[in-house]
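Quick entry, no commentary yet.
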Amino acid sequence: MKVNFDIKDNQAIEIEGRHIDLHNNFDFVGFDYKIAEREIIIHWKKSSGEWVDKNEFSSLVLTHKDVTYLKVIEQDENSTYEDDCCLDVMSFFPSTAREINDSIVPQSRPNEGDDILYFFENGQRIRINCKQIELTVCKLPILSTL
C-alpha cells in the first residue's frame, strides 16, 4: 500500500510536516464507495470546537484506490452523534490477521500487505485493503454538505 502521509500517535496524520489531529480537530462525515472504480473516499470536516486552530484545514479526504477488501463493523446502537463522528484511533494492521479487529499497531507507514483500520468512539470500525491511499486537504470553507 502506498500512502502520501504518516500516521502519528494513532490519532493524527502528517503530510509534508503538517500535523493533522483527526481525533480532536476533525469530524468524520462519512464515506462513499464507488464499487465500479474500486474506490472508497472518506470525508472529514473541521470540527466547530473552540479549541480548533482557525488556520486548520476546512476539510480533508482520504481516497482509497484499488480497494480489494472492505469490512465495516457496526457501531453501538446507543451511541451519540458526538461518538459517531469522532475518530478514536487508526492503524495499519496486517491483512493476514483480519480476525483481529480490536487492536492497533503503532507504526507510521504501512508494511506490504497491511490493511488500514479506523476506530470510532461509537465502536464502529472500518477496515480497508487497497493499493494506495491519497490524502487531499481543502483550505477553503465548505460550501455544501456531503
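second:
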Amino acid sequence: MSGRADSETHPEISGADDVEAAGTEDHAEGDVDVGQDGVVDGGAEGEDGAEGEVEDRAEVACRARWTAAGAGALLTLTGLAASLLRLSGSASALVPAVYAAGAAVCAVAALVGARGRTRRALWLLIAGVMVMALGDQLD
C-alpha cells in the first residue's frame, strides 16, 4: 500500500459531488484558509490548482524515473565499452574487471531507478562511476 494514511479521496473520484473538501469553508474577505497539510490557501488558485499540482508531481516522478534509468543505461554501456577497450590493451586483467564491476553497479542503478527508487539509483550511479574511476587509476 502506498500513499499517506491521512490523505482523502478527491470528490470527483469518490463520486460525492455535493461534499466539500475539508478546510474549504467560506470565509469573510481577507481571511485565509489553512488546509489539512498546513498550506495557506488564499483562494487565488481556483479549483484546478490542486489537481494540476498532483499531475505535475506525477510528471516529475515519471521524468525522474526515466532520467535515472537512462543515465544508468548510458553509464553501463560506457563502462562495458571501457572494459572491452582495456581488455584488448596491455593492461592487467584487474582493470577491465573493475570497469565491468562499475558497469554492473550502474546497471543495477538503472533497474532501481526505473522502479521509482531514484535516490538509491543516484547513489548507486555515483558508486558505479567511482568504481570505474578506480579502474582508470589502476591503469
